[in-house]
Design a protein that fits this description.
The protein is α+β, with helices and mostly antiparallel strands and 391 residues long. The protein contains twelve helices and 13 strands. The longest helix has 16 residues. One of its GO terms (molecular function) is iron-sulfur cluster binding.
Length: 391
């Protein structure tokens, strides 16, 4: 019988990390999606015994203080051109993941399923890693992945886990102990986007351009310093690619302006306090010359643990250039991204096409900026202008 009133994170602060769901010994918590597609824990009162383990495990209820100075910081890119070419930035995660697989480890990260929904999966073969490459700007479905990771760790397997800062915090809280065979990679997260918004966007693209085969949120088709959202649609026996800038694409505009973010992102508890062993991020300084081919993609890396520092020091597959640790975080990295959130409850009374047209408008100003950027790219001036602005 439940004699204790369970108080989990509120709807405004819950990140959906699944730590409480995963830790419950009585399976008394379900993760249920709201109209935005965000999953929240729901307690089954008939199963709950009031042990409070879920409260104790929640990383949001008792967050730690800020930690903004890593042990080591540097920029890097994979030496293997094949990795660099297919990665959104410098290919660092893929390079590390390949080494884990070569050492018979397990790699866990976000991938598209057959319907282009984003879910966390496990990989044990090199050829599976391509599923994890590239950014995915929508909240990933975790399901029972924390339990799977724990099973692998107890078997003595080396595990590389990749996720948002709140997902890594949730995993660490769920495990309740430090595992020497676990390496967690998080990234500088803008916000977590609503799965329902992504579903509406996929339908919008399909109506305009045809059946979708693939989506790349940060394509380097027009260079690393002008990342574009790329969509491949079915065309005859093959595919046809379309490219959109972040200023003119309705989904990216909504994402960057915070209107489709999870409510907890407006006051993120983990933007300034990373629980991962290392944090990765883009590095878009157009004037940077420290690496051999900066235009091919650059990754910022912050190392938080001595164990990870030692591990990376033995990796010869990366080209690197040191940064001052206190300068790893740039000004925009630490802003909470607040926006007027889209009310997805209205979908019950409005047609999807009308809803998307009303809530995913791109202002004329943004379209003009996008047009100007495309013009600079085609004239070969975009990188020069960006370098001048940075100065």
């Amino acid at each position: 019988m439940n004699n204790h009133q369970i108080k989990l994170a509120t709807a405004e602060t819950c990140t959906g990390c699944t730590a409480c769901y995963s830790i419950c010994p009585h399976s008394a918590i379900d993760m249920r999606a709201n109209t935005a597609g965000f999953r929240y824990p729901i307690i089954n009162s008939t199963k709950c015994v009031g042990c409070g383990l879920c409260e104790f495990t929640c990383p949001v209820i008792k967050p730690d203080s800020d930690n903004l100075v890593p042990l080591l910081a540097f920029v890097a890119q994979a030496k293997d051109w094949r990795i660099l070419e297919k990665s959104a930035s410098g290919g660092i995660f893929t390079a590390i993941a390949q080494q884990f697989i070569a050492e018979e480890g397990i790699v866990v990260g976000a991938a598209y399923d057959s319907n282009l929904n984003v879910r966390h999966i496990t990989c044990s073969k090199q050829e599976e890693l391509q599923l994890l490459s590239g950014s995915k700007y929508v909240q990933s479905e975790l399901n029972d992945i924390f339990k799977t990771v724990k099973d692998y760790l107890r078997e003595g397997k080396q595990v590389l886990f990749s996720g948002t800062p709140c997902q890594v915090a949730g995993l660490k809280s769920f495990l309740r102990k430090d595992y020497s065979n676990l390496l967690c990679v998080d990234f500088l997260c803008h916000s977590i986007a609503a799965p329902t918004a992504f579903d509406l966007y996929k339908k919008h693209i399909a109506r305009k351009y045809g059946e979708i085969r693939n989506i790349q949120f940060k394509s380097k088709r027009y260079g690393y310093f002008f990342p574009t959202l790329a969509v491949e649609t079915q065309s005859g026996r093959g595919g046809k690619w379309y490219y959109f800038s972040s200023q003119s694409d309705p989904y990216m505009y909504a994402f960057l302006n915070g209107s489709i973010a999870r409510p907890s992102c407006s006051d993120c508890k983990f933007r300034r306090n990373h629980k991962g062993d290392l944090t990765i991020a883009d590095y878009y300084h157009a004037s940077y010359k420290g690496l051999t081919k900066p235009e091919a993609g650059i990754t910022r890396i912050a190392v938080w643990t001595e164990r990870t520092k030692a591990y990376l020091s033995n990796m010869t597959i990366l080209e690197r250039d040191e940064l001052v640790s206190s300068q790893f975080f740039e000004k925009n990295d630490l802003f909470n991204h607040k926006g007027n959130l889209v009310d997805f409850d209205r979908l019950s009374s409005v047609k999807e096409v009308e809803f998307f047209a009303a809530h995913f408008k791109v202002p004329l100003k943004s379209k003009l900026i996008a047009g100007a950027r495309w013009m600079l790219v085609f004239l070969g001036l975009q990188k020069i202008v960006k370098s001048i602005i940075r100065k």
